[in-house]
């Protein structure tokens, strides 16, 4: 019995010695990892000047959502008496966070690309104020998105349900904020914002896309909307839709950057699940309907239905 009692203690000592031998290997591993940071091809940012924080950008998104949909996501009760006070606190806090992250974004570009001085701190404050001034307009447009979603979805019980739980509304909300920053030529932050929404919802909307009012992304998973896409008013798209570019050569990044590569979708168009529409010269005319799994690389005139032929099922 005595031997049985001592065995666990001996085993633990042996394990502790074994672990310590592994830990003794760490200094050499650390040296190798640090040395790899000097590699010219290594992706690092080791500098005394910080870069924008993805964590803080996510925090900004959450706080802006409190402002865009007052009372829905706030951490405290908002009523008619404290609305002005609460909104003042929220806007002041967002201004501080946003101006700092914008300034870091501009400074990052200044240092990395050896640009002329851009007065980064002043730019950060100016762009933050410009975004906050745009919030009433963004709120009005988002209200049309929510209304269109509710009117087109019999499963929706209320606008509240849509605001709280629909991934399409979250992705479009983040896009509309990010697009405003993109139009102000703020680097880095717009893409960080929309890629965060992409990671949460599976809906990938580039902040450079131009999207009108009453935009609905139904279900949404797998939706891709490229940078130079133009979408009119009252457009509805379903899951798995791609509004993308044609296949590009390896050197396309520099040659085609900023050029129109993605389709134009005019007003009142419906695009069903799995459809793929490609190319900067492709225009889907107003009031058209694009059926599921359709592949398009050429324009469609207004008032057109494009459908796949019914496949023939084979039973064996």
Brief sketch in words of this structure:
By secondary structure, the protein is an alpha/beta fold.
Layout of strands and helices, then pairs:
Layout: H1 2-23, H2 26-36, H3 54-68, H4 83-112, H5 120-151, H6 159-165, H7 167-183, H8 189-201, E1 204-205, E2 210-211, E3 216-218, E4 224-225, E5 230-231, E6 236-238, E7 242-244, H9 252-256, E8 264-265, E9 270-271, E10 276-278, E11 283-284, E12 289-290, E13 295-296, E14 305-306
Helix pairs in contact: 3-4, 3-8, 4-5, 5-7, 7-8
The CATH superfamily of the largest domain turns out to be serine acetyltransferase, domain 1
Sheet with most strands: strand arrangement? 1-4-7-10-13
Quaternary organization? single chain
Radius of gyration: 26 Å
What is the count of β-strands? 14
Number of domains: 2
N-to-C order of helices and strands: HHHHHHHHEEEEEEEHEEEEEEE
Kindly estimate the percentage of residues that lie in beta strands according to DSSP: 5-15%
General form: globular
CATH topology of the largest domain: serine acetyltransferase, domain 1
What does this structure look like?
With 316 residues, this protein is of the alpha/beta class. The protein has two domains: 48-202, Orthogonal Bundle (serine acetyltransferase, domain 1), CATH 1.10.3130.10; 209-309, Hexapeptide repeat proteins (UDP N-Acetylglucosamine Acyltransferase, domain 1). Helices cover 48% and strands 10% of the residues. The chain has a five-stranded parallel β-sheet with strand order 1-4-7-10-13. The chain is globular.
List keywords for this structure.
316 residues, 9 helices, serine acetyltransferase, domain 1, alpha/beta
């Amino acid at each position: 019995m005595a031997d049985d009692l001592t065995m666990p203690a001996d085993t633990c000592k042996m394990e502790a010695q074994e672990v310590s031998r592994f830990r003794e290997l760490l200094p050499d591993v650390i040296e190798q990892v640090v040395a790899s940071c000097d590699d010219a091809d290594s992706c690092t940012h080791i500098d005394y000047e910080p870069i924008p924080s993805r964590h803080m950008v996510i925090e900004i998104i959450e706080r802006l959502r409190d402002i865009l949909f007052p009372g829905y996501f706030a951490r405290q009760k908002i009523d008619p008496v404290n609305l002005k006070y609460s909104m003042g606190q929220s806007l002041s806090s967002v201004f501080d966070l946003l101006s700092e992250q914008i300034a870091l974004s501009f400074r990052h570009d200044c240092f990395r690309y050896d640009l002329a001085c851009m007065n980064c701190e002043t730019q950060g404050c100016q762009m933050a104020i410009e975004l906050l001034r745009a919030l009433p307009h963004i709120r009005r447009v988002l209200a049309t998105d929510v209304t269109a979603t509710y009117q087109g979805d019999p499963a929706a019980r209320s606008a509240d349900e849509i605001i709280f739980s629909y991934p399409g509304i979250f992705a479009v909300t983040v896009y509309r904020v990010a697009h405003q920053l993109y139009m102000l030529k703020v680097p880095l932050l717009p893409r960080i914002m929309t890629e965060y929404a992409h990671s949460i919802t599976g809906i990938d909307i580039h902040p450079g896309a131009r999207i009108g009012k009453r935009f609905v992304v139904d279900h949404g998973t797998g939706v891709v909307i490229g940078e130079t896409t133009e979408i009119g008013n009252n457009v509805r798209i379903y899951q798995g839709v791609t509004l993308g570019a044609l296949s590009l050569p390896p050197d396309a990044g520099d040659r085609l950057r900023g050029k129109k590569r993605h389709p134009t979708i005019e007003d009142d168009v419906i695009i069903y699940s799995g459809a793929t529409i490609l190319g900067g010269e492709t225009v889907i005319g107003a009031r058209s309907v694009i059926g599921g799994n359709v592949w398009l690389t050429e324009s469609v005139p207004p008032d057109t239905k494009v459908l796949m032929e019914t496949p023939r099922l084979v039973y064996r």
